[in-house]
Amino acid sequence: MRYSLAFFMAVVTGWTLSQPVAAADSSTDTSSDVALLEQMAKLAGDDAAARKQALFDLAKTGDSRLEEFLENYRGGSVYLWNEQIVVCTETEEDEDFNELAPLTHPLTGEPVLGDDGKQAKPDVLDLGDISPSRDERKVAAQAKFFLRLFSLDAEVRLSGAKKCGDPPYNIDAVELLGEIAQKDSDNKIRYTARESQLLIQLSGQVPEQNTEERIEAIRQLGEIKSLRALPRLEALINELESSESVDLSMQQACRQSLRDIQSHQKTVDRFSNVFRGLSLGSVLILMALGLAITFGLMGVINMAHGELMMIGAYTTYEIQHMFVNGMTITLDSIILLAAAFGFLYLSQNRHKWVSYIGTIGTTISLAVFLVLFMGRISLLPIGFTIGPMPNLDQAVSMNLFHVNVARLGFDFYYLIALPAAFLAAAVVGVFMEGLVVRHLYRRPLESLLATWGIGLVLIQIARIRYGDNIGVNAPEWARGSLEVMQDVNLPYARIFIMGLCLLAVLMVLWQMNHTRIGLHIRATMQSRDMARSLGVNTRRVDRFTFAFGAGLAGVAGYAWTLIGGVTPDMGQTNFIVDSFLVVVVGGVGELLGVVFSGLGIGLLTKVVEPMQFWGFTVGAIWAKVFVLVCVVAFIQFKPAGLFAPKGRLADDR
């Protein structure tokens, strides 16, 4: 429904001065608001060209309030009511099931008041529809991006500069983009504005632009090495080659710019692949550090090591959930875990029957705990909560106390999740070692089969509890990237993983070489009988070593949540084989070997993945096959790995 444009221009000013809004301190609109509302009134006119021009005139004002209005206009939420332009984004029903429209001011977003002093809620049928056409929606989107060029926020300004250079091209923004390219204080914004300006000129849609100016834009896109221009130049070359009129100078300029941009793209891809390889290698190192301890130092082939990584990832998810929805820890779960630890201690007793009782008690306690855990049920309605108060279906009838850690801020969850992931995986490792692994030392085949079975059980427990796939939201500081050179962006999340890997390696080296427990571990590894005769509690050393290796796997899962998905079989599918390859290539039990081989395998994997041969892209699967072939070939020449054991260790192996 269209009304006379002249009529609306006459009534808009009167409405802005007479219509009250919800703000207590505001009774009239400013003169600038009056001008904006006059432009909005043109959107109700019958002339399509005038409506489109009104959208750009609104954008040129630079008023940030208009972005929301333009979005509402695109969504069909702008109406006419009592000769006034209003906004209604959602409707509601009254007692008689009439659909009512709560009205808000198009600029301020404040409620429009009716005669009774309350927010006006007329029937939807009483509103005049101002539905934009498809072309007008596109123009509104362009106007919104043009409006962002005036923003004081650098991120918003950058977004606007980029969007203006994407199809459909914002021709009216060419001049303003040129000014931004020269005067803006942000280097990235200046580059993006210049790039978008040249892309608009490349399109050939700028009025009164001649061929020489278009060719110059093509050359400059090659000089600034614009990756956004790559597909457009390729399309332009195809268009020129299929055209009847031959423009050799433009074709030559396109080909030269393409060569420059493609060369730059290869450089960017090399840097990106190397960095992704280093971050993947860091995760493999975190995984393989635990394996180097359990497999290299203890001789246990732990096929459940990937599931220990999965436990660390799900623990991170639980800590995040605790900060958002709260977590209730019931008294029965505490009692069952305490009983399991107590019985586990009895299972280490030298007396045969006491050991049997401890093993059976530990098994029963863990079984009951896991049933309650998977079913999300509680036997004793007493406990305490951490984080915000939980929902009613999660709460217990009696809370002993409540710790509101959520007030620390959402991002703080990731700091707490680090020790939590380590401890959760380490506790599972303690029970694995005490119930199963300790009976299988120096029996590699049996330990392989037993831990593989444990891994399958852990996968099913996670699948029953969480389903097949969950997501962990990265903290705010881990989002975004650091641009070290043009188009080479290093994600903060991957930088953090590499730093965490370095910290873990230094910690393990310090512990193994400069602490008492590290001395005991090395002594037990070299000669268990001699260490026992010198007073070393080898059982305690075994338990600690296995738990420590399991905890490192949990830290790897914690790190992986920043860059990958969390699934029950994530460790078994993606990491366990690669982790064993890292340990074998580096040298069994050699921690420095783990570092070099982990980085090498990670780099090789990510460098090979994007390679193409005769039109065939290698991809992730064939890259793993290639890496495996390389590892097998390497072992033929160096069976002991990069860092071969020396002295007595070499004789023992």
Features:
single chain, about 650 residues, mainly alpha, 3 domains, 3-stranded mixed β-sheet, 25 helices, Urea ABC transporter permease subunit UrtB
What does this structure look like?
The protein is mainly alpha-helical and 653 residues long. The chain folds into 3 domains: 5-136, no CATH class; 150-246, no CATH class; 273-326 and 387-652, ABC transporter involved in vitamin B12 uptake, BtuC (Orthogonal Bundle), CATH 1.10.3470. 62% of the residues lie in helices and 6% in strands. Strand 9 and strand 10 (488-491) form a beta hairpin. Helix 6 runs parallel beside helix 8 (187-202). Mean pLDDT is 84; it is low at 1-28. This is Urea ABC transporter permease subunit UrtB. Belongs to the binding-protein-dependent transport system permease family. LivHM subfamily. GO terms for molecular function: transmembrane transporter activity.
Which CATH architecture of the largest domain would you pick?
A: Orthogonal Bundle
Question: What portion of the residues fall into strands of 2 or more residues?
Answer: 5-15%
Q: Into which percent range does the helicity of residues fall? A: 55-70%
Main beta sheet, described? 3 strands, antiparallel
Number of helices: 25
Radius of gyration, CA atoms, in whole angstroms: 33 Å
Mean pLDDT: 84
Tell me the count of domains: 3
CATH topology of the largest domain: ABC transporter involved in vitamin B12 uptake, BtuC
Secondary structure tally: strands: 12
Structural class: mainly alpha
Assign an overall shape. flat
CATH C-level category of the largest domain: Mainly Alpha
The first-to-last residue Cα distance is 89 Å
Q: Which consecutive residue ranges, at least 5 long each, have pLDDT under 50?
A: 1-28
Main sheet: strand order: 2-1-5
GO biological process, one term: amino acid transport
Membrane topology: Multi-pass membrane protein
Keywords: Amino-acid transport, Cell membrane, Membrane, Transmembrane, Transmembrane helix, Transport
Subcellular location: Cell membrane
